[in-house]
């Protein structure tokens, strides 16, 4: 996931993801690309939550690919609306700001 954002960040669980997000926040960067990057952490947790709910309440088998697609769509949408990026793309397994 970190490589999709162009970050040198690795984590193995949700707590590691949260810690990675806090490190990025501490840098204090307020640029569009930084705000866009900050949208990644909530997008991942949101996708995990939706996947969990579908499995628990609808009996849908969780698939990593479906969860990742939810992350991609959320990040693209939130990057435009929350970070002020003119357009967000996903090319060659990386997010790009146009």
TrEMBL record:
TM helices/strands, residue ranges: 32-50
Keyword match Membrane: yes
Top-level lineage group: Eukaryota
Keyword Transmembrane attached: yes
Keyword annotations from UniProtKB, A to Z: Membrane, Transmembrane, Transmembrane helix
Protein name: Mitochondrial pyruvate carrier
High-level lineage: Eukaryota, Viridiplantae, Streptophyta, Embryophyta, Tracheophyta
């Amino acid at each position: 996931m970190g490589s999709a954002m162009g970050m040198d960040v690795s984590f193995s669980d949700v707590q590691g993801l949260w810690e990675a997000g806090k490190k990025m926040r501490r840098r204090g960067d307020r640029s569009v690309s930084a705000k866009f990057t900050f949208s990644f952490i909530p997008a991942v947790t949101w996708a995990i939550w939706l996947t969990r709910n579908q499995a628990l309440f609808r009996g849908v088998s969780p698939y990593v690919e479906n969860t990742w697609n939810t992350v991609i769509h959320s990040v693209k949408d939130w990057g435009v609306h929350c970070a002020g990026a003119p357009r967000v793309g996903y090319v060659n397994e990386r997010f790009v700001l146009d």
